[in-house]
Each structure stands twice: as C-alpha cells, then as structure tokens.
Design goal:
Blueprint: E1 7-11, E2 14-17, E3 22-24, H1 39-42, E4 53-54, E5 74-75, H2 88-106, E6 119-124, E7 130-135, E8 146-147, H3 149-168, H4 170-176
Parallel strand pairs: 4-5
Antiparallel strand pairs: 1-2, 2-3, 6-7, 7-8
Cofactor: FAD
Protein name: FAD/NAD(P)-binding domain-containing protein
Organism: Asanoa iriomotensis
C-alpha cells in the first residue's frame, strides 16, 4: 500500500506513479476521498478545517444548540475526543446517538454522549468474497484481516439491515441502538 502517491497512468498491467515507479497488478481499485457539502459553513454553523460541523458528544452543534449534525457532515467524536472517520458505520452510530439525545432532551432527561470503542472496514468483493479489517477509530488498520465468503455474507447482512430492515422496522432499530 502506498498512501498519498500520485498515479500517472493505469493500464492492463498495473499502474505508473507520477514519480516513475511502476506497480504491477492484475486489478486496481481506484478510490476517492470524502468531501463535505458547504451547507453547514454557508448556514453559519461552526465547522472544522474539512467543513464538518463541530458537534458535542450528543451530536448537537457547538455554535447552534438547536441543530444536530450526523453522518459525514459532522465531526462526531468519542468521549476522549477522538474524531470518528467518515463512513457508513460511524455515521449510523452517530445517527442513533443524535436520535436518543433529541428524544432525551425533549423529555427533560440528560442525554448520554456517543460511545464508540472500535471500528472496522468491511468490503464486499462480490457474493463469494470480502475483506474485514478491524481499525482504530481514525481508520488506521489493526488486528487480523478476515477474508472469504463469511465476510461477504456479513457485509450482505449489514447492507440488508441498513436498507430494507431499518426502513421497514424503525422502532426495532432505534431500540437496538439504545444508549447504555
């Protein structure tokens, strides 16, 4: 893996880096980073250097306490201050936390902050293969990589739950995301 390398060309044999190094490969996965819409900044909300809304531990805007931010547009963080990576996993946890914070405040209770202890990247490579990489909260790889059909089945189950099941049975999903 080479981070921050500029690619000059991709061809049938691999890729050529801007500095002249050649990397042979049977397949190349070209990925792109995340960008944040300018909506929060343009609305006058406090944002970080990437344009993500600055939020407290319950996902409430630090500059406008009646506004909540979730997903990739908010700089959600753990109780020890670690900002979560952008992605569907952390975004889903942040959404559940914001939901509970809003309902707690509306009922006069003190909401609990977001608690995340670990993360993982799970990538499907078709129906029969996948990669599961445990990571630190900022996305740095750690632990043992898992591959194969079990990972593909796990990713498929996650996608089904996040799509079909969550929309069909939102009360169960909310109960499952309850803050402890």
């Amino acid at each position: 893996m080479r981070e921050h390398a500029k690619v000059a060309k991709v061809d049938a044999d691999g890729l050529l880096l801007d500095g002249g190094d050649r990397i042979a490969a049977d397949a190349v996965a070209w990925t792109a980073g995340f960008t944040v819409p300018d909506l929060a900044r343009e609305a006058g909300l406090a944002v970080d250097q990437r344009g993500r809304m600055l939020v407290d531990g319950t996902l409430r805007s630090q500059s406008h306490p009646d506004v909540y931010g979730i997903g990739d547009a908010a700089a959600a963080h753990t109780q020890d201050g670690q900002v979560l990576r952008m992605g569907c996993g952390p975004g889903g946890l942040a959404a559940a936390c914001a939901f509970h914070a809003i309902t707690a405040r509306l009922s006069g209770r003190t909401p609990k902050p977001l608690r995340v202890k670990g993360d993982a990247l799970c990538i499907s490579l078709g129906r029969h293969d996948g990669i599961l990489q445990p990571t630190d909260l900022d996305g740095r790889p750690r632990g043992t990589v898992r591959t194969g059909r079990p990972v593909a089945l796990l990713k498929n189950a996650v996608l089904r739950a996040a799509g079909w099941y969550n929309l069909r049975y939102p009360a169960i999903v909310v109960a499952g995301a309850r803050q402890g």
